[in-house]
Write a structure and sequence with these properties.
The chain has 390 residues and is of the alpha/beta class. It has 13 helices and 17 strands. Helix 1 packs across helix 8 and helix 9 runs antiparallel to helix 10. The longest helix has 15 residues.
Length: 390
C-alpha cells in the first residue's frame, strides 16, 4: 500500500516508517522542515515538506492533497496533532485516500482533558479528584483546598505545562505563568502517587486491533520518556476498550495511567501515537493497521526495550548528578532507537533537527514560551490547543 506518514520529526513516526517499510509498503514522509529525522530513513521512499498545520492550515491541507495526488497515496497516517487539522478537512485530501483517524469531533473530545475526564467518570473509570478552573483566581482557590496537587491545561501534551507542589517538578512552573481561560481551562487535580503506566492501541471502528503497555524507566527533565520497556499489564485494557467502544474510535490512541495500591487511575488520553508503538513488531503493527474488522487483538510482547542514547548523554551533560542513572541505562541492553543498524541516517538528522529549536526561539517571544525549549520546540507548529480551525 502507498502510505503517507506526517510529522516525521516524531520518534514514533520514524518507527512507523520503518515498520511499514519493512513490511513492503511504499511510505512517503512529511513534516514542516526538511531535517525531520523520519524523512531520512531508508524506509521512506520519498519525503516532502509542508506548511505548518497550526499557522497556515489552508496551505498545509493543500500541500498534503498535492502530495497525495503526486504519489497516489492510499492511506494517511498522522503521527501527531496535525490529525485534528486533517480530520477537519478530510474531504479535501483526495477522493481515493483514507485518513486513519476518527472524526474531528471524536478526536477533539478525547484531546480535551476536561471532556475525557467526564467521559471516564461516566464509564466508571477511576480518575483523580478534579476541579476545573477558568481563571487564575479560580486556580488559586482550588490549589488552596488541595494539599498535594498537579494542574495542567485541558489542551496540553508531553508535560510541557505542569503546575505542581509535589514531586520532582514541584515549583518548576509558577502560578503567574498559568493562564486558565474559558476556552482552555485548567484541571487542578489531586496528586496521584504511584508508578506511570502508558499504553498505545490501534482501534478499528470501535474495536481494538493492537495494544501495548509500557513504562519509561528514564525521563527527560521528568517530563517525557527516553528509555522505554514493554510490560505485561492488561489491567487498563478493559478501560481502554470501554472508551474506544463508547466513542466508536478509529485510529491510533494512547493513554497515561498511574498505578496505585488501589489500581490504575486514568490521567490522560492522546488520540494519536506515542512511544508505545515501538513495542509492537512490524508484523503486528502492519496487520492491525489493515485489519478493518479487528478480528484479532495483537498484544506487544513484554521485555521490548528501547532508548534514546543522545538524550541520555545530553542529560548527563546538563545534569551531572544524574550521570550514574543515565550511564546505567546507556549501558543497558535496551536497543538504541535512532541509530538502528542499517538505518543510521535518522540519528544524524536527530542532531540536525535541533535547528527547529532555534526557529522556535526566533518565532516565539520569551513570555510566550511554554516549558523546556527542547520539548516545546518539537511541538509548537504542529499542535492544536482547541482553537477554531478554518
Amino acid at each position: 500500500m502507498r502510505i503517507l506518514i506526517s510529522s516525521s520529526r516524531m520518534p514514533f513516526a520514524l518507527d512507523e516508517i520503518r515498520k511499514l517499510g519493512k513490511e513492503g509498503h511504499f511510505v512517503v514522509a512529511t513534516d514542516t522542515f526538511r531535517n525531520a529525522p523520519g524523512s531520512h530513513s531508508k524506509f521512506a521512499a520519498s519525503w516532502a515538506t509542508t506548511a505548518s498545520p497550526r499557522y497556515d492550515t489552508r496551505k498545509f491541507i493543500a500541500d498534503i492533497a498535492q502530495i497525495v495526488q503526486d504519489n497516489a497515496i492510499e492511506l494517511i497516517l498522522p503521527a501527531f496533532e496535525e490529525v485534528f487539522y486533517l480530520a477537519k478537512h478530510a474531504g479535501e485530501l483526495g477522493p481515493a485516500v483514507r485518513l486513519f483517524a476518527s472524526s474531528f469531533e471524536t478526536a477533539a473530545r478525547l484531546h480535551d482533558k476536561v471532556a475525557t475526564r467526564a467521559l471516564a467518570a461516566e464509564l466508571h473509570i477511576p480518575v483523580p479528584r478534579t476541579t476545573v478552573v477558568k481563571s487564575r483566581a479560580e486556580m488559586r482557590e482550588a490549589i488552596r483546598h488541595e494539599p498535594s496537587y498537579f494542574a495542567r491545561p485541558s489542551f496540553s501534551r508531553g508535560g510541557v505545562q505542569l503546575l505542581t507542589n509535589t514531586g520532582p517538578l514541584a515549583g518548576s512552573v509558577e502560578i503567574e505563568a498559568c493562564e486558565p481561560t474559558p476556552e482552555n481551562p485548567w484541571l487542578v487535580q489531586e496528586f496521584v502517587d504511584g508508578v506511570d503506566v502508558c499504553t498505545f492501541s490501534i482501534a478499528q471502528h470501535g474495536k481494538l486491533a493492537a495494544h501495548a503497555t509500557y513504562i519509561h524507566p528514564r525521563e527527560i527533565e521528568h517530563a517525557g520518556g527516553i528509555v522505554f520497556e514493554s510490560i505485561r499489564d492488561l489491567d487498563g485494557l478493559e478501560y481502554i476498550r470501554r472508551i474506544v467502544e463508547a466513542t466508536g474510535y478509529h485510529g491510533q490512541i494512547s493513554f497515561d495511567f498511574r498505578r496505585t495500591p488501589s489500581g490504575l487511575v486514568l490521567l490522560e488520553c492522546n488520540p494519536r501515537p506515542t512511544a508505545g508503538v515501538m513495542m509492537l513488531s512490524p508484523a503486528q503493527f502492519s496487520a492491525a493497521l489493515f485489519d478493518e474488522q479487528a478480528r484479532t487483538l495483537r498484544i506487544a510482547e513484554p521485555g521490548v526495550r528501547k532508548k534514546y542514547s543522545v538524550a541520555l548523554v545530553r542529560d548527563m551533560v546538563l545534569h551531572w548528578k544524574e550521570i550514574p542513572q543515565d550511564l546505567k541505562h546507556l549501558l543497558s541492553g535496551a536497543k538504541e532507537f535512532y541509530a538502528e543498524p542499517g538505518d543510521v541516517l535518522p540519528a544524524l538528522y536527530q542532531f540536525l533537527s535541533y535547528t527547529h529549536v532555534l526557529n522556535y526561539r526566533k518565532d516565539q517571544r520569551p513570555e510566550d514560551r511554554k516549558g523546556p525549549d527542547l520539548m516545546a520546540a518539537y511541538f509548537y507548529d504542529i499542535l492544536w490547543d482547541g482553537e477554531q480551525i478554518d
